[in-house]
Write a structure and sequence with these properties.
The chain is α/β, with parallel strands linked by helices and about 525 residues long. About 45% of the residues lie in helices and about 15% in strands. The longest helix is centred in the last third of the chain and has 30 residues, at about 350-380. The protein binds 5'-O-[(L-methionyl)-sulphamoyl]adenosine.
Length: about 525
């Protein structure tokens, strides 16, 4: 049976347009989706938008439009287009205003109430609209400057609001012990290790029941048994992961296949929303009798001046600002290679330009154009037949095999930057090999023809493996490289198996190679 792989991004708030922090999570999920598809797995990649709650409602109000109108505009003008900008291959896009989502959310909470996990209560305490989160007093920081004397949210540096409401509560406290036991038995369900430790220490402090509805908010999904309350935005949003794969059909038994085919999911999230995904969400699933997520992976933040990049702090950069200049492949490569997944990182124009020039234009791009130029000159544009391999060739063959396997393994532990580095090591080694073997010198002597053919085959076949391994990261340029190598004979690059990319000798002898424009054109300022 084919393994399924269901991967999700957080659903993004539509209070504003996307910045590169949002695009970062989507790119990471896209690379993992493409990688798993190239292992032949049954992949489902979900992303979408979180449209209810106070934050979005207030954004609409301050723009003098109805919340639904505001959401439609932002989704269509900003959030959907950014997926094309970064070349995301998502299989679905869920909006929390979709009817399928509303039905699933109501079915879910009705079930939790029927199962005896919802009680009535009064909430009194601080709330951060930026986080849409009920806060504990101990979480807050003292305000500075204009906010002097006020308790502020540590993420948004803005004063919290004090709420007093009669709500329904989800009995989160009941699930503390089961969650601790589950994570002790399955430590790989929360990654990286720092995230696991954070969640365990939170769980060990004890869990309090948490408000699951709001009476003073109107922009949301009605509580099915009380039309004066809407479901708290996080307890509406988290359910997108289930409603998108037809939880409603699963719950009423009318169509169980989709949910059963894909659940449980791998959730990629920013570390700021780890607790929601690794504590509240699994507790909700336990309460509903459903399997817990396969993995919650908390990645780091893109920082500006040492702080999390955010629109509210006016530090957001739109993905198109970078993609228009460098292209989507370089954007994807840069963010996933330069920042170790799971850690914070800073973006700088100098860094992306430097890596673009050295690693992509001079590294991979140059290798590809040198090869096709030499094949045109010395081999009538055909992939030559290799002769006997010498030790320098064997070294490359071994490196291709080992680094491919290592890259594939790194993906299993979500080490995307490491996987990319293994492939880059092959590029660097082959570039060095070209310099050392100097095919243009061999070409001067007709008696060296067999050696020349062998060297050129080693370069071409290495590039075949590189194209496959880099394809999830840089789908456009590797598709072009695939054509340059005449590798279409092996079928589409999407259909190649990434876990056997390093098996030597796949590129057919005699394949017709093609010269193309540079894979990564030189940047205007370098010209
Ligand atoms: N709507 C909630 C998530 C609900 S999921 C059931 C939310 N939305 S958000 O738009 O504020 O942010 C969502 C995600 O965007 C973060 O978890 C993270 O994955 C990504 N990022 C937003 N800013 C980021 C950075 N500065 N750096 C890296 N990722 C960032 O929270």
């Amino acid at each position: 049976m084919v393994n399924s792989f269901y991967i999700t991004t957080p659903i993004y708030y539509v209070n504003d347009a996307p910045h590169i922090g949002h695009a970062y999570t989507t790119c990471a999920a896209d690379v993992l989706s493409r990688w798993h598809r190239m292992r032949g797995e049954d992949v489902w990649f979900l992303t979408g938008t979180d449209e209810h709650g106070t934050k979005v409602e207030r954004a609409a109000q301050s723009n003098n439009v109805k919340p639904q109108e505001w959401c439609d505009k932002l989704v269509n003008d900003s959030w959907l287009p950014v997926l094309a900008t970064i070349n995301a291959s998502n299989d679905d896009f869920i909006r929390t205003t979709d009817q399928r989502h509303k039905l699933g959310v109501q079915a879910f909470w009705q079930k939790l109430k029927d199962n005896g996990h919802v009680i009535q209560g009064k909430y009194e305490g601080p709330y951060c609209v930026g986080c849409e989160e009920f806060k504990l007093l101990g979480d807050l920081i003292p305000g500075t400057g204009e906010q002097q004397g006020k308790d502020c949210c540590p993420v948004h540096s803005k004063p919290v609001e004090i709420l007093q409401e009669n709500n329904y509560f989800f009995q989160l406290s009941k699930f503390q012990q089961s969650l601790i036991e589950h994570y002790q038995k399955n430590p790989d369900r929360i990654q990286p290790e720092s995230a696991y430790n954070e969640v365990m220490s939170f769980l060990n402090q004890g869990l309090q029941d948490i408000s699951m509805s709001r009476s003073s908010v109107s922009w949301g999904i009605e509580v099915p048994w009380d039309k004066d309350q809407v479901i708290y935005v996080w307890f509406d949003a988290l359910l997108n992961y289930a409603t998108a794969i037809n939880y409603a059909g699963f719950a009423d038994g009318s169509q169980k296949e989709t949910f059963e085919r894909f659940w449980p999911a791998v959730h990629l999230v920013g570390k700021d929303i780890l607790r929601f995904h690794a504590v509240y969400w699994p507790a909700m699933l336990l309460a509903a009798g459903l399997p817990l997520p396969r993995t919650v992976y908390a990645h780091g933040w893109l920082l500006v001046g040492g702080e999390k990049m955010s629109k509210s702090k006016l530090t957001g950069i739109a993905p198109s600002q970078i993609v228009d200049y460098f292209g989507s492949d370089a954007f994807r490569y840069y963010f996933l290679r330069a920042i170790s997944f799971g850690q914070d990182g800073s973006f700088s124009w100098e860094d992306i330009s430097a890596r673009y020039t050295s690693e992509l234009a001079n590294g991979l791009g140059n290798l590809a154009s040198r090869l096709t130029a030499m094949l045109e000159k010395y081999c009538e544009t055909k992939v030559p037949k290799p002769g006997k391999y010498l030790s320098a060739d064997q070294k490359i063959i071994d490196l291709v095999r080992e680094n491919s396997l290592n890259a594939d393994q790194a993906i299993d532990s979500y080490e995307i930057a490491t996987a990319i580095t293994y492939t880059k090591e092959i590029v660097d080694a082959v570039n060095l090999y070209v310099t050392e073997q100097a095919p243009w010198v061999l070409a001067k002597e007709p008696s060296n023809k067999e050696r020349l053919d062998t060297v050129l085959y080693v370069i071409a076949e290495s590039l075949r493996a590189i194209a496959v391994l880099h394809h999830p990261v840089m789908p456009k340029s590797t598709s072009l490289l695939w054509q340059m190598l005449g590798a279409d004979q092996l079928g589409s690059i999407n259909d190649q198996r990434i876990n056997t990319a390093g098996v030597w000798g796949q590129l057919p002898v005699g394949a017709i190679t093609v010269k193309k424009d540079a894979l990564f054109p030189r940047l205007a300022e370098d010209a």
